[in-house]
UniProtKB/TrEMBL annotation:
GO MF entries: 3,4-dihydroxy-2-butanone-4-phosphate synthase activity; metal ion binding
Organism of origin: Fraxinus pennsylvanica
Keywords: Metal-binding, Riboflavin biosynthesis
Highest taxon listed in the record's lineage: Eukaryota
Family statement drawn from the similarity comment of this UniProt entry: In the C-terminal section; belongs to the GTP cyclohydrolase II family.
Name of the protein described by the UniProt record: 3,4-dihydroxy-2-butanone 4-phosphate synthase
Pathway membership: Cofactor biosynthesis; riboflavin biosynthesis
Length: 156
């Protein structure tokens, strides 16, 4: 996992990111604990079109879609080049973010960074991410101190 902060002129928020193919129930539980609980997947437009997706859950191996296990199942299915449109149910448990072609060189956002980082190390074509929140529930911004940083002494 990597913490990415997007451009100050954009949202200026911290995000926990990782390659979608490396997501585990433990990683998802940690991401949800230290983030907003809204797990997102950064995915290329061509992959969204191939899979005919808008908001999705994996069709097989999930229940309500809300658990860490169900989130992992959906993110791994998104990352799999073997997935087809029939493998997904429409829902709103994993938020899909359309990656801007050209990545951080074209858009200074967390969705571009998440997927760029995954592709830079040759892992896959989907990035997983979740915005970080401070203890008071507000979005974590670029100024972190040990007392306000939700990731201080974080297990990852």
């Amino acid at each position: 996992m990597v913490v990415v902060v997007d451009d100050e002129d954009r949202e200026n928020e911290g995000n926990i990111t990782m390659a979608a193919s490396k997501v585990t129930p433990e990683a998802t539980a940690s991401i949800v604990k230290h983030g907003t609980g809204i797990v997102c997947a950064s995915i290329k437009e061509e992959d969204l079109e191939i899979l005919q997706l808008s908001l999705v859950d994996a069709k097989h191996g999930t229940t309500t879609g809300v658990s860490a296990h169900d989130g992992v199942t959906t993110v791994l299915a998104l990352a799999s080049k073997d997935s087809k449109p029939k493998d997904f149910n429409c829902s709103s448990h994993i938020f899909l973010l359309k990656y801007r072609e050209g990545g951080v060189l074209k858009g200074a956002g967390h969705m571009e960074a998440a997927l760029d980082l995954a592709m830079l190390v040759g892992l896959d074509h989907v990035g997983a991410l979740c915005e970080i929140v401070d203890d008071d529930g507000s979005m974590a911004r670029t100024f972190f101190t040990p007392h306000t940083n939700p990731l201080y002494n974080c297990p990852f």
